Fold:
Amino acid sequence: MFFYYCRLAWLSIRRNPVLSTLMMAAIALGIGAAMTTLTINYLMSANPIPGKSEQLFYVQLDSWDPNQPYAEPNEPPDQLTYRDATNLKEAGQAKLQAAMTQSAAVIEPKELGKKPFMAYLRLTHNDFFELFEPPFLYGQGWSDEADKSGRLTIVLSKKNNDELFDGANSVGETITMMDREFEVVGVLDEWQLKPRFYDVTTGAFNSMEHGYVPFKLRETLEMPNSGNTNCWKSPDGEGFQAFLQSECINYQFWVQLDDADAEQDYMSFLNAYVEQQKQLGRFPRPLNNRLSDVMEWMENQQVVDDDAQVMFYLALMFLLVCLLNTVGLLLTKFVSKSGEIALRRAVGASRADLYWQHLVESALIGVGGGAGGLILAWLGLQGIKSLYGDNLAGLAELDLTLVAIGIVLAIVSSLLAGAYPTWRACRIPPASQLKTQ
Structure:
């Protein structure tokens, strides 16, 4: 019976091509707008590291001004001081731990004809690579000894390796940076975290760094800041070392804690550490340390922008308007078929049969509108990508899940739109219609 209803629906659509096209276009416009914004919101809030998101924790210590919190109502700073990041790493109380910050330097290619370029670097510890599991194309991260001594080593991104070494295995080669020779110990394969949750302070959807170097180089080479730096009081003294020992925050710190007991133990360690620092005249505020796993941290930092959510709600309202227009068009179409409906009732068709027949027709219109809506959504995403470039790479893409959601949304929307027109059409008394024919 279902296939018979599909055949009747197709014949009805073909008999009224203009009206049917208008209904599909209305649904397509609503679905296109809704799916464009849904795609962006869905991928922005997706779990960026699903296998480990519940074991990775971001550390916050409340080292801020005693007279006011870092953020209302009583939020601790979103980064650590250099002193605290270094102390926590040296304590080694977690299974894995890595401090990090962003810096920048000019890389000078050795090959003739290639121009120097500015590279963004991630200063971090070697645990970074085990914490976040980036794929390696060649080599590996640096050693513990390189971490402690600040050896001039670097792990390159695939893009930079392609630029500097034409994609060849560059492990053991050197590059010139800051007038020094850095040894390449590893090359990452394609790696694009979306969101780049490990450092949302410099932009959760910015491109990945060009290279990764030991954290110790921040101090030994006096490498510059390239991220957000906030201070609640001026450094005690002048010079780079005074700045490093100040209460200025510019560093992120991540740990891996595999279970609830490890999390509780690490929180106890953080509280004991802060109490110790209080005895040294630091941390004037009450205890307010935080451990946030990946998804909690992204929610806390509002990685999904409020504007994106507002646009999504507006798109849903636009879809509702399109559906109301579709209701009017379906009502016009189904009421115009009252003679046909009356004849079918007269030869034995029940109201339920007619109801299902016209709902199938509504669903078929929804499938057409959904297909058109997905095309419009794809075009909309291409437009967004052209406006925002690499910052939305990987976020403005329709995957199979989203395609399925789009089709289901279109069918459900068309069924809801067709429910009232179908009911109205099937309520028409057949006798009165047959008399007028």
User: Anything to note?
Assistant: The chain has a mean pLDDT of 85. The first strand starts at residue 56 and ends at 60. The two ends are 28 Å apart (CA to CA). The CA atoms of residues 171 and 184 lie 5 Å apart.
